[in-house]
């Protein structure tokens, strides 16, 4: 089962889908016959920064860690209008179109979670060496460092959108995780990393930890005294608009406010392929930096593709246009996607923060038996390919 750094747990796939099926957008099929009728993008100038032909693989395979959703918008935004959706293989392929031009290679985006038997992204990357970039949470990279090492090459989301949520009516006047945890409220999560972090900070006691969260709203609806994990980019909208048994606001606080400092889903390569991919990454990483910014500037077309993919894949997961729109706005408005605070460069990984992440989560993962040795933080990332001129325009 995935750690809590992932988007959802294995059980959440069918259980949450069943709970949302009453209200979220329904299923359906997508056109898998081939190219769309939209006009082709013009070719990138030969040899220019957007020309990937000859330096990148003919098909740049990108692996996500969960079902298609707006948090993965940068990857999906690069799939050209000539795309083909393979509902059986659970993938979408098309020309890799960046900043309005065809880069000369194709892109294939693969979802994770139930589509790959809930295997972690590093494991998938070592099983299939056609994968160029994988979305690997920093704590997952620490966990896999000994046997399946990956190197993050750019951040896409700066701050984790994971939250703990609660019922405001049950806890009037309380606005923080710490305040509500002080009442003795159970903390319901799908894994032991979050409670271990909170215990290490004295926010909860071991008795408050409940790792039975299955991704459904049933427990929260029936027992609103609990603190429950979720995502600021999804659950607040879903509970207020798509859970018929709730349909009211929830209270929440970002786990990042209480030490959950990981980089969520930075893009990584296999450590043993870094040298071979270097010519490609010199052009591809700046494209990925800009792709996230461009997606959030105009998310609607990509969000429609994401919803279409969910409907085509038919895994039981549901994802509405309303959630996608809410997520894209929340990513910006709540500061989950922002420039690196240390440098002002979008997509850069801060060395001081990486050291702090390893110092925090290495011992936790060591204590729970996931790892035997804490890796060197510098082995987990590189800023070599970052374009320092790529920045988000704030405000």
Automatic annotation (TrEMBL):
Q: Which residues cross the membrane?
A: none
Q: Which domain of life is it from?
A: Bacteria
Q: Where is the signal peptide?
A: 1-30
What InterPro entries does its record include? TAT_signal
Q: Does the keyword Signal apply?
A: yes
PROSITE patterns cross-referenced by the UniProt entry: PROKAR_LIPOPROTEIN, TAT
Alphabetically list the UniProt keywords: Signal
According to UniProt, the name of this protein is ABC transporter substrate-binding protein
């Amino acid at each position: 089962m995935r750690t809590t750094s992932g988007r959802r747990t294995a059980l959440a796939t069918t259980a949450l889908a069943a709970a949302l099926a009453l209200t979220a957008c329904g299923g359906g099929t997508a056109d898998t016959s081939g190219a769309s009728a939209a006009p082709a993008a013009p070719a990138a100038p030969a040899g220019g920064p957007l020309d990937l032909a000859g330096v990148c693989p003919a098909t740049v395979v990108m692996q996500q860690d969960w079902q298609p959703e707006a948090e993965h918008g940068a990857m999906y935004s690069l799939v050209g209008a000539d795309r083909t959706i393979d509902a059986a293989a659970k993938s979408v392929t098309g020309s890799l179109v960046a900043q309005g031009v065809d880069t000369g290679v194709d892109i294939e985006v693969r979802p994770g979670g139930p589509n790959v038997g809930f295997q972690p992204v590093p494991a998938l990357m070592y099983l299939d060496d056609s994968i160029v970039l994988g979305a690997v949470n920093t704590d997952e990279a620490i966990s896999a460092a000994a046997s399946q090492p990956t190197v993050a090459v750019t951040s896409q989301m700066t701050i984790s959108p994971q939250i703990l949520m609660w019922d405001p009516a049950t806890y009037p006047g309380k606005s923080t995780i710490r305040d509500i945890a002080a009442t003795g409220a159970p903390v319901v999560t799908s894994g032991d990393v979050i409670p271990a972090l909170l215990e290490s900070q004295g926010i909860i006691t071991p008795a408050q930890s409940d790792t039975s969260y299955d991704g459904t709203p049933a427990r929260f609806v029936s027992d609103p005294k609990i603190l429950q994990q979720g995502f600021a980019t999804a659950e607040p909208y879903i509970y207020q608009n798509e859970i018929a048994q709730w349909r009211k606001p929830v209270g929440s606080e970002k786990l990042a406010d209480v030490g959950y400092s990981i980089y969520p889903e930075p893009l990584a390569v296999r450590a043993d392929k870094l040298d071979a991919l270097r010519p490609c990454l010199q052009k591809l990483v700046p494209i990925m930096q800009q792709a996230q910014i461009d997606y959030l500037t105009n998310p609607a077309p990509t969000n429609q593709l994401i919803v279409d993919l969910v409907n085509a894949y038919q895994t039981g997961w549901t994802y509405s246009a309303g959630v996608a729109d809410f997520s894209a706005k929340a990513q910006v408005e709540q500061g989950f996607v922002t420039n690196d605070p240390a440098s002002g460069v979008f997509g850069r990984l801060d060395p001081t923060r990486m050291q702090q992440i390893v110092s925090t989560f290495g011992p936790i993962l060591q204590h729970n038996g996931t790892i035997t040795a804490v890796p060197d933080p510098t082995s987990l990332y590189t800023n070599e390919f970052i374009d320092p001129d790529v920045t988000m325009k704030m405000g």
